[in-house]
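User: I'm curious whether this sequence folds into something compact or stays loose and floppy. Could you predict its structure so I can see for myself?
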Amino acid sequence: MRLLSAARRVPRPGKLLLLGPGGDLAGEIKDSLRMSRTAYSLVVPPGQTILRRLNIPDVGRRKRESALRLAAETAITRSLDDYVVDYWRIDAQSFGLAAIPRDLLSDYQTFADERGQAARGVLVPELTADLKNGLVVWVTERVVMLCLWSGGALVDWQVIPRPNGLVALEQMLQFGVSADPNEIILRVGLDEDQAFSEAVRDSCERLFSKAQIRVERKSVTERDQSGRVLCAFDDFVGEQSNRPASSARRRGAVAATLVLLASVSWFGYLQLRDLENQAARAEHSASLLKMQAARSARIAERVGRLTSATRQLQTLDDNSIVALMDDLIELMPASIRLAGQLQLDRRGILSLDGLAEDESDISGFVSELRRHPQITEVRLQSVTVNRGDSQKNQGARFRLQVRLSAPLWEPPGEESA
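Assistant: Here's the prediction. I'll summarize afterward.
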């Protein structure tokens, strides 16, 4: 359990709602307040919180809570379970007890169930630090309360019933306040008797002439929400925050969940439709691309055939087969003539058949061919002599194979490979 030795700031308490019979939660509550989602905190009316000073032995932190509870049970008349309690540190062995009657919180329990939202904190005006060092005088309908602050903590307090009169108050101010305060705040409710408040102020000015006195006349729910408090009743606030949600809030949560699911489903449906449309467009584009690819392949095949034919014609023309044949005819003796077909393979080998009147003419023709610059080798494959009935030589048939220095023609397939 964490105990404060100085007041701390309350983080964003939200709207302040006053407890008690004349508070914001008594009677019929406005629909705007019941249905609002704004954060809120509870304010206990001044004088409704029981404050006690507890003295316990110096024990460890683990045993401190038990020691404080034991001391608190002897300090108040009713059972401690009838109160919402919190503590603060005064000195090493002295602690302050703040006890709020649970009867005061009955209207809040009903309001929290209907609204489905717990309070963010519980504020006690007497434990709100208006100053760090000084005296705060609370003037309520029944009592006058003197709160002495030192170092940001409430270290002493005295309660004087109003029927006791101003004399008792002056006696308490003169002899009950241990040190002369430099600053005094007189807090008066909006409905309090102004004459009595002025009398209390005059008494303070007369007894503490050097002190600066400030009078504040406003509601406790209109105070600065960034004020510092000694007790925030964190255990009670945490307990209320974990309470089950109200039926209205559960219905709202179910409705919000259904709306969210419907929105997600509709979004998923739209996304699915969009994906289907994109898939259809992609399939159509793919079919168009396939058709264009097939058409391009056919066109490329036709262009390839035309290019091969063109190259073949250019090869035949550029290597001058006709010129080579002219050279062969010039080298050929008049007694020799070609017979049959000329064959030219891809290796540059020319095969030819011919007829000669005499075998010696064939030898001369072979010698002339070997001296030609485009011919590297000449082979006489066969010679057949034709003889008649009189055994006379009637000519000879021969076959030559001539190897050229370079092929005169290369097939298109060889070039592309």
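Summary: The first strand starts at residue 8 and ends at 9. Residues 247-318 form the longest helix (72 residues).
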